[in-house]
Amino acid sequence: MEAGAVNAGFAAAALLSLVTFGVHTFVGGVFVARPLLASRDLTPASRWLNYYCWHIVTALLLLMAAGYAWAATRPQALDLAVFLTLLAAILSPLCVWVALKGRIAPWRFPAASLFALIVAAGLWGCFGAGGPLAAGFPAVG
Questions:
Q1: Sign of the C-alpha dihedral, residues 100, 104, 107, 108?
Q2: How many Å apart are CA 10 and CA 28, to the nearest integer?
Q3: Are 57 and 17 in contact (CB under 8 A)?
Q4: Which of 7, 13, 30, 102 is the most buried (most CB within 10 A)?
Q5: pTM exceeds 0.85 for this model
Q6: H or E stretch at 4
Q7: How far apart are CA 54 and CA 133, in angstroms?
Q8: Whole-angstrom Cα distance, residue 101 to residue 14?
């Protein structure tokens, strides 16, 4: 990657992480976090521990966006982008598994598909044209 160039795959992963943060915060806040806090079916400790976990994910998504944005402009941050891509690759099927375990259609949990898109963008950043791990093919002819 040339000086001043932007890795489009990592930039896309940063944007997708930010979109995921927005969906989590503004859609999930209304349909998940508020009902969670209003629930009296859970003990206070369970309710507030779940709310704490909610905020861990909020922070994680912002850090993922920042990490991918950093890697998009700094080739030396490849290890960070690979780590974030592996993390998203774990979180997407985990989301599907949790949905299925709860007998909920996986597409009802947008995190599964959003993390899958982040993985795709991260792989594009690593292996796509101009990516640091792109395989060079010899010219034919």
A1: negative
A2: 25
A3: no
A4: 13
A5: yes
A6: none
A7: 34
A8: 30
C-alpha 49/C-alpha 65 separation (Å) is 25
**Per-residue pLDDT tens digits for 48-97:** 999 999 999 999 999 999 999 999 999 999 999 999 999 999 999 999 99
Per this entry, what is the length of the chain? 141
CA 3 to chain centre: 27
Q: Report d(CA 8, CA 85) in Å as an integer.
A: 15
Query: What stretches of the chain adopt beta strand conformation (E)?
Result: none
Residue 40, Cβ neighbours under 10 Å: how many? Answer: 7
Query: Which residues touch 41 (CB under 8 Å, ≥6 apart)?
Result: none
For 21, half-sphere exposure in the C-beta direction (CA atoms, 13 angstrom radius) is: 17
- For residue 97 the two structure tokens come to 């598994």
Tokens read off for 58 = 């909020």
Residue 74 belongs to what H/E stretch? none
Q: Are 47 and 109 in contact (CB under 8 A)?
A: no
